[in-house]
Design a protein that fits this description.
In chain A, 71% of the residues lie in helices and 2% in strands. With 336 residues, chain A is mainly alpha-helical. Chain A has a single domain, classed as ABC transporter involved in vitamin B12 uptake, BtuC. In chain A, α3 runs antiparallel to α4. In chain B, 45% of the residues lie in helices and 13% in strands. Chain B is built from 15 helices and 13 strands. In chain B, a hairpin with a 4-residue loop joins β12 and β13. In chain B, α2 crosses α11 and α5 packs parallel to α7. Chain B starts with a helix and ends in an 11-residue tail after the last helix. In chain B, 56% of the residues are buried. The chains are: A mainly alpha (336), B alpha/beta (436). At the A-B interface, α2 and α11 of A face α2, β6, α8 and α9 of B.
Chain lengths: 336, 436
């Protein structure tokens, strides 16, 4: 990102937040039934931003595979569910959560190798839509196989992350601003994960090879980068990201079938942030998370509520009008 | 065709034909009970214990009593995944099974119930929507083949407000009650009743819809816990929405003992994911929690290891009661038509004349577990009573006496809504004084 763009973001984002706040304040002044205080607004905003990081965790998995292979991996949601089911299943067998984490990572590497060998390799040189359809097949397989292996019951995934709410700035805002500790830990985990991925992509040999494949498959092949190995590695990394997302979402909601549906929450994040950008997944998640929470709380009442799901997509599409490739996506220019 | 292909085809045809050829001889004295289940899909954690309970009770009747008056019960599960299309497909597949066809269908889904009402009425097969589906189907003059016993959502809304009123020393004037509901036909069912009661009793009702499947409720609970701060919260949820709501309520510090769910929001899969945070949470119920009844002892004794792993859980118990009601309807029908397999129409008569007296409930080994019921041609709800149960962190326990919903206004509401449905569908309501 250029320094100019960075400055625009640093100044622009708080500006937009303040303008929306003043707008709500004006509505509250005109309409006594509309509830608004700056403290409450900050609380909703922070909750939304933290929620957005959770969306980003899922979106990251999509970005990794799309970057390396140009395939939209429909199976990422079921990978999250499968990872969480395996982790909790191993913990139920008596493994400490750290050992379960390691063992689950190993299982996900095996899944990645199997996907590369059984699904992707036979489809080399096929159109992207065929690979996309193949990932739909993987989605249903992992979904069913995970439940066959570990059962359909709701499982509790507890690795000791505190859940009690904390209150900040009690002197400044009446009653303080409530923050969920679990969400704070999740946000910190998301931050560490992005840092690890950044180091992996920028500093390691495999990471550089991944970036080369992402830039141009043919050119990467011509300099001897093995596509099959890269695919296996990228699916393994996406599996690890799915595991982290699964731990966070599973810890928050319990591990169950519907966990696979959180992939739907990552789609507007990807539309907004771009399918090929890791920073885009993070910034997109923050915008979607904060946007949908603020919309639900302050605008939902005007239209009967339950708007946050479709509002996220509407917000993403609004951005698309101005940035069709997403905020951080690569602008593709093809010469005819 | 090659010889090998011919052999394979012949073998396949023989395998397929075998049940058809064998069935008349085997099935003469069998009563077929279809089971629409969802052991897979997003609602499997709820569907599995429901199905287990239904199956175990039918097995118990065969093992303990040799069937119903000597007629062996057969059953077949069909997987709906809680999906309306699949529900209809399962209905069509199972309705003709057994020597006399299906006894009664229990869809365990409001959507599937809606989809089956017309078909079942045409096919003359009763539909038991036990504590779900259309509340106005309690009016038997318009819905002769649908039974809503032991209570409807409207009755439950009334009973829960009675419970809350009792906790507030009988005065709800100025109190704030929020309803968090699944944004669907099911979730909206109690709204009319609650709006009427808010006018009558003077409490302020606030509505919070939650989009399916209910994974995202942070904004909802910030409004409830940090802005509105209601005296009580009611919940009409299902599946993952329930446990998410409980977790989010805890995250904003809302007191659990003032949070009451519908009976579909009060089972182990709803509270266990929330772990300690769910302690104190309450829900409605039309049967007692636990596994202390004589019927439970019989299941343990006679089925042993064959009993399901979910034995004694809330939804298992609900599945048991569902099968028990179907069995009792068949038994009632046999009293009129003789001890032989009953047709759907005969079972409908059995439902309409079902009288579960305290004595009969004692014989069923369910005293204290289920309250008496009496169905008539007009009243397909049967006057069931409700209770409130509370999660103590490890198990559900009884938290109230049995509560009887105020029948008079509810009956008037059923009849008004059913009359509207009859007018829309061109149905002429039955004259129950002329029904046998």
């Amino acid at each position: 990102m250029s320094p100019r763009a960075l400055t625009a973001w640093i100044l622009g984002a708080p500006g937009v937040i303040l303008i929306i706040g003043f707008l709500f304040q004006a509505i509250a002044a005109a309409n006594s039934s509309f509830f608004f205080t700056w403290g409450y607004y900050a609380e909703v905003l922070i909750a939304g931003l933290l929620q957005g990081v959770m969306y980003s965790l899922v979106a990251l998995g999509f970005v990794l595979i799309f970057k390396a292979s140009g395939v939209f991996n429909f199976a990422q949601g079921s990978l999250v569910l499968f990872a969480a089911l395996t982790m909790v299943g191993l913990m139920e067998m008596g493994l400490h959560w750290v050992l379960a984490l390691v063992a689950t990572t190993a299982v996900l590497v095996l899944v990645a190798l199997a996907v590369e060998r059984v699904v992707l390799r036979p489809l080399v040189n096929q159109p992207q839509i065929i690979l996309f359809m193949a990932t739909i097949g993987i989605f249903y397989f992992l979904d069913g196989f995970g439940q066959t292996l570990w059962g359909s019951d709701v499982k509790v995934l507890d690795i000791g992350i505190p859940r009690d709410p904390i209150f900040i700035l009690p002197g400044l805002v009446e009653g303080g601003i409530l923050i969920n500790q679990f969400d704070l830990y999740a946000a910190a985990t998301g931050g560490i994960l992005v840092a690890v991925l950044a180091v992996f992509f920028q500093k390691t040999r495999i990471g550089r090879a991944l970036r080369a494949v992402a830039d141009d498959h043919q050119a990467a092949l011509s300099v001897g980068i093995p596509l099959k190995v890269i695919w296996a590695v990228v699916w393994s990394v996406a599996g690890f990201v799915a595991l982290i997302a699964g731990i966070m979402w599973g810890g928050k909601l319990g591990v169950q079938f519907t966990l696979a549906l959180i992939a739907l929450k990552a789609l507007p994040v990807l539309i907004l942030g771009g399918f090929t950008s890791i920073p885009g997944a993070i910034v997109g998640g923050l915008i979607i998370g904060a946007g949908e929470q603020v919309a639900e709380v302050f605008l939902g009442g005007f239209v009967g509520g339950a708007i946050q799901d479709w509002f996220a997509y509407m917000l993403a599409m609004l951005f698309l009008l101005f940035r069709p490739q997403g905020l951080f996506g690569e602008k593709i220019i093809e010469r005819v | 065709m090659r010889l090998r292909d011919l052999c394979v085809a012949s073998l396949g045809a023989a395998v397929l034909a075998a049940p058809i050829v064998a069935s008349p001889a085997l099935a003469q004295n069998e009563q077929f009970v279809p089971l629409l289940v969802y052991r897979t899909g997003p609602y499997a954690p709820n569907g599995i214990p429901l199905a287990d309970g239904q199956v175990d009770y039918l097995k118990l009747i065969n093992a303990r009593d040799g069937g119903i008056n000597g007629v062996t019960i057969t059953f077949e599960e069909c997987e709906t995944q809680y999906n309306n299309d699949r529900g209809v497909e399962c209905y069509e597949r199972l309705k003709g099974n057994g020597p006399t066809g299906a006894s009664a269908f229990s869809p365990f889904s409001t959507g599937i119930t809606y989809a089956l009402i017309d078909r079942a009425t045409t096919d003359q097969i009763p539909v038991l929507s036990m504590g779900y589906g259309r509340a106005d189907a309690s009016d038997g003059t318009v819905f002769p083949y649908v039974f809503t016993l032991p209570a409807t959502y409207w009755g439950q809304a009334d009973a829960l407000i009675q419970y809350i009123s009792a906790q507030e020393d009988g005065n709800l004037e100025g109190k704030k009650i929020a309803l968090v509901y699944h944004d669907s036909a099911y979730g909206k069912e109690p709204i009319t009743t609650l709006e009427r009661l808010s006018k009558e009793r003077g409490f302020e009702l606030s509505l919070f819809p939650v989009a399916h499947p209910g994974l995202e409720q942070k904004a909802t609970w910030l409004q409830i816990g940090r802005q509105l701060r209601p005296d009580w919260v009611l919940m009409w949820g299902w599946g993952v929405m329930n446990s998410t709501a409980i977790k989010e309520a805890a995250a904003v510090g809302y007191p659990m003992d003032r949070f009451v769910g519908v009976w579909w929001s009060g089972a182990e899969p709803d509270v266990e994911p929330a772990a300690a945070a769910a302690k104190g949470y309450k829900s409605g119920a039309f049967h007692a929690p636990g596994a202390d009844s004589q019927m439970h002892k019989d299941i343990q004794e006679l089925l042993g290891d064959d009993a399901a792993d979910t034995f004694g859980t809330v939804l298992y118990n609900r599945g048991v009661i569902n099968s028990a009601i179907v069995v009792e309807a068949i038994r009632t029908a046999m009293a009129k038509y003789g001890n032989k397999p009953m047709t759907g129409e005969q079972v409908r008569w059995g439902f309409e004349n079902l009288d579960l007296t305290p004595e009969r409930i004692e014989e069923m080994g369910m005293t204290g577990f289920l309250e008496p019921l009496k169905i008539t041609c007009e009243d397909h709800e049967g006057g069931g009573k409700l209770m409130v149960q509370q999660w103590n962190g490890e198990a559900w326990e009884v938290a109230s006496d049995w509560i009887e919903p105020n029948r008079e206004p509810l009956r008037a509401a059923y009849e008004e809504s059913a009359a509207k449905y009859a007018a829309e569908q061109g149905i002429t309501p039955r004259d129950c004084s002329k029904v046998e």
